[in-house]
């Protein structure tokens, strides 16, 4: 029935199927839909109009490829040509609209290698992209298999899905080892923890480095899986790798205040300024205080990190110490030990202060990663964890709108950086 719909309309309107700009004529589409409705044929689903159109397009493209390969059209074989058409074989391919059975033409000597649907290919590219997209959003292989079966009526095993996602590993390795810019205005570093089953399930850190380029773009520099808890020693390894990949200078590194991290940063980039995230410092302060005092402490510390100058911040902190020092001496010691890495942003203009006082820039990336990781529970090995995180990172901004907002947000700050750091950013523009 569906074949009749296609053949009737295509034969009657063959000359109108394509406009000069290559777009299918709307009249043909209207006729196809109209005849399908008359004969009770659905648009989607098994035997639907879209499936039959896909079948027709694929088979026509394959016939065209075989014609190019043989050098003559169907029924126009020249006597001197030895190779010839040799029937076809049935093959089912999984497409975005579900499984579609097609007839793949063959040649006599077996030299024909189709490109539109390659030999042994059972899925069109869009299906692979769909699987990768679903995986990046945190769906497990079982969830993806169930989704494809429910929505498209396609049976795709978890092994096949794993094979599809494993193809990103080579691209991930190339991405991880790509050359980097010679200078970045700001690099944000942080780590998240994932559960990996290595003998027994344990938390493992995934180190993330995000940079702002001299043009105001976001650039995630890499992902690294560490052992045990987050440590400054491993961060030294990460930063050294970044330098070996071409990063010779960084104006500021914004981090969470991990002990020993400023020293590791100074060894790799001696001129870099280490800035501790104010939000992390506040959260650390709350760990030493009773819950009922959190709001009061936050209000009392606000004049410290919003002060106009370093000297004013010191005065406000002394006032805070007089009020809360006796009750919470550990908070005072925490701020005193972190003071050298807390105050750098206070010497800059408001444009720079706003974007470097916290690690919010990288926290938004971490939130997407955690969403994908949380759905998995735990991973069988380190590579599986990195693959999941990599897919989540690669799907951060599918429309490009986030990139535009990011660049606009950093425009004023980068102008201030250019002045404040005496032209060090100009190296990255050469």
TrEMBL record:
Any single biological process term in GO: DNA transposition
Keyword Mitochondrion: no
One term of GO molecular function: transposase activity
Alphabetical list of Pfam families matching this protein: Transposase_mut (PF00872)
Keywords: DNA recombination, DNA-binding, Transposable element, Transposition
Highest taxon above the source species: Bacteria
Keyword DNA-binding belongs to the record: yes
Similarity comment: Belongs to the transposase mutator family.
Free-text function comment from the UniProt entry: Required for the transposition of the insertion element.
Annotated protein name in UniProt: Mutator family transposase
Organism: Subtercola vilae
